[in-house]
Design a protein that fits this description.
The chain is of the alpha/beta class and 277 residues long. The chain is built from four helices and 16 strands. The strands form two sheets. Strands 1, 2, 3, 4, 5, 6, 7, 8, 9, 11 and 16 form an eleven-stranded mixed β-sheet that branches. The structure holds calcium ion.
Length: 277
């Protein structure tokens, strides 16, 4: 099963407040994005549309989002988890009020908020973060009516999916040695950080095959596959040059010491953007 979503991930915060943020390349309506965020954990208080509670968190979200998504005419906002319930702007994940003008952190775009305040347009009940394009100011929040935007999902500490993450930094020179992978220890499988893989752009349509023997391995290197696994050695290859002979600027980037059986439904692919500290 090849995943359909292309996302980048980063971490922000310390200790119990260290949260995971996933920035999605696809666009969804507010309700669909919210439902997707909840579906990651099954609990809308554990995984929800991003709800910045401080200026530093807001900056981290903005900086990482615009590192991954270039602002433009079709990418001017991302959904956040703020919405208007008819009386107050609130973060839906915990019901906290965000427009009280008091102690709670707010980052409204003043002109947009004032215009909304005058009309109280009932359709403009969702909070989106501007990505800075055209007249839109980056990092600030805008009251928006429903539309399809990119979105950022925040997951609280301890509720992240259980992936065995493969580090591809320095691949080609060294392999990430994996000695603790099993489907029982990592129920969400193996996840490849593809941001370091040269020329990789198949985030939503990557292909994978496991080779039974050396002959198959050589044969699969000459097929239009992105990833090939050689179970006999436990090596996972990136096939950078597709159907050309060999692996191009690719090659084995991970070795599984236990040589487990790997299938495509155990694999997922994403882009890791690091940790904001
Ligand atoms: Ca090849």
């Amino acid at each position: 099963m090849s995943q359909s979503k292309y996302y980048a991930e980063f971490k922000y915060g310390t200790g119990a407040d260290r949260h995971t943020y996933q920035i999605y390349k696809d666009k969804l309506t507010y309700g669909t994005a919210k439902a997707y965020a909840t579906s990651l954990t099954g609990d809308q208080t554990k995984s929800y549309l991003v709800s910045p509670g401080s200026s530093a968190e807001n900056d981290a979200v903005y900086n990482k989002t615009t590192e991954f998504i270039t602002p433009g005419p079709d990418a001017n906002y991302v959904w956040t988890g703020g919405d208007y319930d008819g009386a107050n702007w609130k973060y839906y994940y915990n019901g906290s009020t965000i427009d009280d003008g008091g102690a709670n952190y707010t980052n409204w775009n003043e002109l947009a908020y004032d215009a909304w305040f005058l009309t109280q347009d009932a359709a403009q009940k969702y909070m989106a973060m501007g990505l800075q394009y055209d007249a839109v100011t980056g990092k600030e929040w805008y009251p928006k009516q429903d539309s399809s935007y990119h979105y950022v999902v925040e997951t609280v500490n301890g509720y992240e999916k259980q992936y065995k993450d493969i580090n591809t930094i320095g691949y080609g020179r060294s392999k990430d040695i994996i000695s603790d992978y099993s489907t029982s220890a990592y129920k969400d499988g193996v996840r490849i950080n593809a941001s370091e893989l040269t020329n990789f752009d198949h985030y939503t349509d990557w292909t994978f095959k496991a080779a039974r023997n050396k002959k198959k391995l050589k044969k699969f290197a000459k097929r239009d596959l992105d990833f090939v696994y050689y179970q006999k050695k436990g090596d996972l290859y990136y096939n950078e040059n597709g159907s050309s002979k060999g692996w191009g600027i690719g090659g084995a980037f991970a070795r599984f010491d236990d040589e487990p059986r790997l299938t495509s439904d155990q694999l997922s692919v994403y882009a890791y953007l690091g940790e904001v500290v």
